[in-house]
Amino acid sequence: MISRFQAEIATALATLAFGLIIVNGAREFGLGWDSSGPQPGAFPFYCGLLIALASAGTIVTTIGRRMGGSAALAGIFLDKEQGKRVLAFFVPMLAFVVLSVTLGMYVAMLLYLVFTMRFQGRYGWLPSLATAFGTAAFFYFGLEKFAQVGLLKGPVEAMLGL
């Protein structure tokens, strides 16, 4: 079980790290002003700084509320059953990302849609396969052919000459 306190602190630490990464990256592009105005890193720097400061404020507030005895922070944020549902969504999405890089976007899309519709949504094989192939065809013709925007391709697309 994850308490609300743990969830708030973990989220604040993650967004703090995100903000500091933005701040650090923005420094490479310059933060000041030159003859044409602000340098390219100025806006991202201040956005990252705002994210980092808000995250630090959340950490301080959350710890202060915990020390003050706030009952809301002791409540359960995520129990075992809810965790299973989160994983049931997250694991297939992670597999989709990994398969997109290794097998290409279209194959990953087919596998993801068939898996989620058939085994999570409990649809039959025909609707699952029809939706998966229809979606892949829509993206292929809509993006590759019409808009000429290429998606990640893998060995299957190369084998088919797509």
Protein architecture, described:
There is one protein chain. The chain is mainly alpha-helical and 162 residues long. The protein folds into 2 domains: 2-78; 80-160, no CATH class. Helices cover 73% and strands 6% of the residues. It is built from 6 helices and 4 strands. The chain has helices spanning 4-27, 42-67, 80-103, 105-120, 125-147, 155-160, and strands at 2-3, 33-34, 37-38, 76-78. It has a two-stranded antiparallel ribbon. Strand 2 and strand 3 form a beta hairpin. The longest helix has 26 residues, at 42-67. The protein is flat, with a radius of gyration of 23 Å. The termini are far apart. The relative contact order is 0.10. The mean pLDDT is 89.
Q: Whole-Å distance between the termini?
A: 47 Å
H/E series, N to C? Answer: EHEEHEHHHH
Indicate the radius of gyration in whole angstroms. Answer: 23 Å
The overall strand count is 4
Judged by helices, strands and strand pairing, the structural class is mainly alpha
Summarize the structure.
The protein is mainly α.
Helices and strands in order:
Blueprint: E1 2-3, H1 4-27, E2 33-34, E3 37-38, H2 42-67, E4 76-78, H3 80-103, H4 105-120, H5 125-147, H6 155-160
Antiparallel strand pairs: 1-4, 2-3
Helix pairs in contact: 1-2, 3-4, 4-5
